[in-house]
Amino acid sequence: MKIFKPISESKAKGKVKRIFDDIKKIRNIKKIPNFWRSIAHNTETLERTWNNLKQIMGKGTLDPVTKELIYVAVSITNSCEYCIRSHTAAAKKKGATDQMIKEMIDVVGIANQNNKLVEAYQVEVDDIYK
Amino acid sequence: MKIFKPISESKAKGKVKRIFDDIKKIRNIKKIPNFWRSIAHNTETLERTWNNLKQIMGKGTLDPVTKELIYVAVSITNSCEYCIRSHTAAAKKKGATDQMIKEMIDVVGIANQNNKLVEAYQVEVDDIYK
Amino acid sequence: MKIFKPISESKAKGKVKRIFDDIKKIRNIKKIPNFWRSIAHNTETLERTWNNLKQIMGKGTLDPVTKELIYVAVSITNSCEYCIRSHTAAAKKKGATDQMIKEMIDVVGIANQNNKLVEAYQVEVDDIYK
Amino acid sequence: MKIFKPISESKAKGKVKRIFDDIKKIRNIKKIPNFWRSIAHNTETLERTWNNLKQIMGKGTLDPVTKELIYVAVSITNSCEYCIRSHTAAAKKKGATDQMIKEMIDVVGIANQNNKLVEAYQVEVDDIYK
Amino acid sequence: MKIFKPISESKAKGKVKRIFDDIKKIRNIKKIPNFWRSIAHNTETLERTWNNLKQIMGKGTLDPVTKELIYVAVSITNSCEYCIRSHTAAAKKKGATDQMIKEMIDVVGIANQNNKLVEAYQVEVDDIYK
Amino acid sequence: MKIFKPISESKAKGKVKRIFDDIKKIRNIKKIPNFWRSIAHNTETLERTWNNLKQIMGKGTLDPVTKELIYVAVSITNSCEYCIRSHTAAAKKKGATDQMIKEMIDVVGIANQNNKLVEAYQVEVDDIYK
Predict the structure, then answer these.
(1) E interface mutation test: which of D110, D113, D125 has the most E CBs within 10 A?
(2) Which CATH number fits the domain A60-122, given the four candidates 1.20.1290.10, 3.20.20.140, 3.40.50.720, 3.30.420.40?
């Protein structure tokens, strides 16, 4: 074994088990996804990541759907397949429609293009944006 | 001159001038920002980019504020200062509050972190996400 | 064939064969990994890459394990599966423990997050860091 | 004001002040760097980020110098000037020599190059690395 | 279904069908590749992307082969397998030889390395380049 | 001093001086640019980088102008200002026209956009590209 494999849910004990239970309850799911089972190799990482995510992705001034769409937009930009697939699913579960996802994708596409046009022309920041 | 400098607004003629006028009208601004004055070195690029942006960033199922926040999220991930500054300004002009921007930033931060945890553990996509 | 496939070890001749032999000797391995068999399509690339890597990754003030961990950290940040897997294996072969790898991953995660918080807030460099 | 400016240390109150005091004590510094003063606009972000960083960057199986070098390696790969400068300073303060930094940089350079050679040739993962 | 699957060519109607026909004619191909069948979920995206690509990738001062090599170089840097494979194929169809592709790859490799050395040493722009 | 500053040309001795002289001769320049003066802190890095660059960027099946354009395309994608500026200058010195540079920029823009559309739709590689 070179890379850590996801640990089995049935082998989770103590703090790991309690966090797994919290994930299933908050997310309203029956099985722990591979991401959490993988980082569970490091209990501190699991606990910290779950607590951070719960705090950040919950309802705030931005609604949870918007937050998920932003999360997917970043994941597309970083080419993270797992993240794109799991958070697109999360966005849909929370109410995102296909049309919303398509519009988000278009914004991601043009932003990535224009970000590079700005670099290519080495555009200086206008005074009004400083 | 090694890199193209922004062209002066007063020197814009023909199609470039018409596009500059459209940008000022649609955006409700008095001066053309450096980005458009830079890419105006290539009339086709200016026209294509403006038409694309108008089509994509206008009102759809997603409201313009959400689109701007997604645009900024991508620009942060790509480390594009000009894009972060100009589209944060655009987001605010369209109604984004400081609180919305802070929450967007937090999502961008955790998404960038978790994207890399997924790579580090080479997490396989769960069947339910396929 | 659209993309270059790894060339067969048994077909390596001349300089390519000598480099393959050197790789097997220095790395103490029996089979040439796909990376070297792929870039062997360009003898100059193979020779240059192997010589560079030997010079850089050998023992210096930093020990070889630390160098491999740094290599993996970069590869995670760039989302290169092959590189993550092969250099995690190399790190372990040279003595990296699971605990060391987990701690490296945590640093990679928080660095990727904070790098983006810095961009989001456009933090200026403090005088003491200049 | 378009982007959040660092808040003044003298205006920090309550939880923000307590965290600033903890940063100064743990880091053995007299002034709070711009990074912390910037993210202090969001108390939750400040608290979470500081707690995460303290947990991750402290002494573990990897020594703090190695962790800082890994942090800088990621920051170079992500082109984050502030992060490169501040964590190179941190690495030196914790004992990194110029020679160690130079060797880290060389590893970052070749890893970035080889990561792309792997993509270019679309190298498949060898069975022994799976 | 979590992510949009490519739509079947036989189900394309109206504007989508006309664009598919144009792609097949201009590209001199019999089947529409998965990329176009995927973005066809959004007719506007399909139309805009195809029109942009036709305008940009056609013959200009740079010949189409050079443009395809530049496209592949970007795709390698962004680690986009589909893009690397499809545009390497396009480059070959337009006349790129294996030797040209290998030389392009070498440039991509060293550029990625030196880009990071520049960041690591925070090299300031020389006056003659400003 | 936190980050290595460029070393003065007048202080270069031995191997560093010989490499500086070779750079000036081959490049037909009077002053050593900051990049080389920075990495000269590590003689091995200077020597290796210069030898690699000379080998890769010289005339091959691809002409030197095309190679420089590819180098700039990668540097734009990686947002490396120094690299964009210095290699755009190099491209012009070797014969690149403004029109060629503008067309290269357009290709870089659309490639960055389409790379992300491919990720967003998770497009599978067509059989003909495998």
Answers:
(1) D113
(2) 1.20.1290.10
